[in-house]
Specification:
Length: 464
């Protein structure tokens, strides 16, 4: 017999009520939270671009693929934990929710230690693979070393907020991000302008702020009265739960890590055009990340919505939620693109007003904006499939589209056709197009009804 889940006041049951209402109410605080999370690196970039040097600006901006490669692997595993929690929560299985929470947190601490060591060790290799301009290497090395030294805070926050979102609570993770983002801004200005610390100052500001957000999220979990409550005596690994997390999360983890690793090589194609092109691409990608926040938030909302509804067997409702999320993302993304295209020069200049940098940034941004409708398709449907516990297929599709296809395209283009910045950047929207087509074909043929991961609790093995 299923155990009734004790629901906290901040949790949301998405298995009944308005589909659009649930998606919007869930996505808005998530969107705002992601917005403030983006402020970490954005403020870092703005401060070094305005108060340090163009070399420091390029250094901080171009190391994103290296960070995403390792952090993306962890976030993939975290998404697996979120799917397992949301489905058990929707099925009202309290003990399995509790075990998943504690298994996920133990896994996070272990991986945090591993990623700290690995991240610091691979910095020289990754900067060489990216063909980083020699003038930017010292600052990039400094920033990455400090960042990875404090990466555990970021990981604990993301896992903790993922646990809260899996039960429908996207508000409190947002509140904590606001606090830490504002703290990051203050520390950036204090360390760089007040103390003259340069790149190391923005790095220390980032890890300190991330550490505060981790502490806040852990306090909330510890004080919760629901089945997601963090209790030190329960911090053990359930092999049964871990297998489910790994089965769902590893494909996403590998997809995120390999895609980011591939972006290291894509960045190397940009870096050969010099510091101004590197800086222009940095400005473009930072604006690009803000523009994609709505679709990413709605994709996460779709993941939780689908997970909870499939946990109760409501397949048609889960599919309806996916369609609604797609239409919402299209409307928002296209509206933002119509604003950004004519104002691109002002947006790029906000980060770095050097004329050559602005020219490159505007060129890249105006290429990408009309293609964001493709991102909506592949992200929303991939999020829906992951909510159903189907993570392998979206992973294989994205690896083919974002890694193999892009690398083949860039190699042929730069070696046999033309080697100029704009066609190189076109590798991104072309990858989005391929991914969207393949994802739609797969989704139209998959059986969501047979994809639930929740299992009967009668055969739960011992914890270890």
């Amino acid at each position: 017999m299923s155990v009734q889940v004790k629901r906290a006041g901040h949790s949301v049951d998405m298995t009944q009520g308005s589909v659009v209402g649930h998606l919007v109410r869930f996505a808005i605080p998530l969107l705002l939270g992601n917005l403030f999370q983006q402020l970490y690196n954005t403020v870092d970039l703005w401060v070094v671009g305005r108060y340090v040097s163009n070399e420091a600006y390029s250094a901080v901006g171009t190391v994103t693929p290296i960070i995403n490669m390792l952090i993306g692997f962890f976030l993939g595993l975290a998404s697996g934990a979120g799917v397992v929690i949301s489905q058990y929560y929707g099925a009202k299985k309290e003990e399995q929710v509790r075990q998943t929470v504690h298994t996920s947190l133990v896994m996070t601490v272990i991986l945090g230690i591993v990623l700290t060591v690995v991240g610091i060790l691979i910095i020289p290799l990754m900067l060489r693979l990216m063909k980083t301009d020699l003038q930017a290497v010292p600052e990039a090395t400094t920033y990455l070393t400090i960042y990875f030294a404090g990466v555990l805070g970021l990981m604990l926050y993301n896992m903790g907020s993922g646990i809260l979102r899996a039960v429908g609570d996207s508000n409190r993770p947002f509140y904590f991000l606001v606090v830490s983002a504002l703290l990051n801004i203050a520390l950036d200005l204090f360390f760089v302008i007040g103390l003259g610390m340069g790149v190391e100052g923005v790095a220390y500001a980032t890890i300190l702020s991330q550490g505060i957000s981790a502490v806040l999220i852990l306090i909330v979990l510890a004080r919760s009265e629901a089945c997601i409550q963090l209790r030190l005596r329960d911090l053990k690994v359930s092999l049964h739960i871990l297998r489910q997390i790994v089965r769902i999360g590893i494909p996403s983890a590998l997809q995120m890590a390999i895609t980011s690793f591939s972006n290291v090589f894509v960045q190397s194609y940009i870096n050969v055009f010099g510091l101004d092109c590197m800086s222009g691409w940095t400005s473009c990608t930072k604006i690009d990340q803000f523009l994609l926040l709505p679709v990413q938030s709605l994709a996460l909302a779709a993941t939780t919505f689908v997970g909870q509804n499939l946990g109760t067997g409501q397949v048609d409702r889960a599919k309806r939620g996916t369609r609604c999320a797609l239409f919402l993302s299209w409307g928002i993304t296209m509206s933002l693109s119509l604003i950004v295209v004519p104002t691109a020069p002002f947006l790029v200049a906000f980060f770095n007003d050097k004329p050559e940098v602005v020219a490159y940034g505007v060129m890249f941004l105006r290429l990408l904006c009309p293609c964001y409708v493709l991102v909506c398709i592949n992200q929303i449907y991939a999020g829906s499939l992951r909510g159903a516990g189907i993570s392998q297929a979206p992973t294989y599709i994205m690896l083919f589209s974002f890694v193999l296809f892009r690398q083949i395209y860039l190699y042929i283009l730069t070696n046999y056709i033309v080697n100029v910045p704009l066609p190189v950047a076109a590798g991104y929207p072309l990858g989005w197009l391929v991914c969207s087509i393949l994802t739609l074909i797969y989704y139209s043929r998959v059986d969501l009804a047979g994809s639930r991961v929740v299992e009967d609790p009668s055969s739960m093995p011992e914890k270890v």
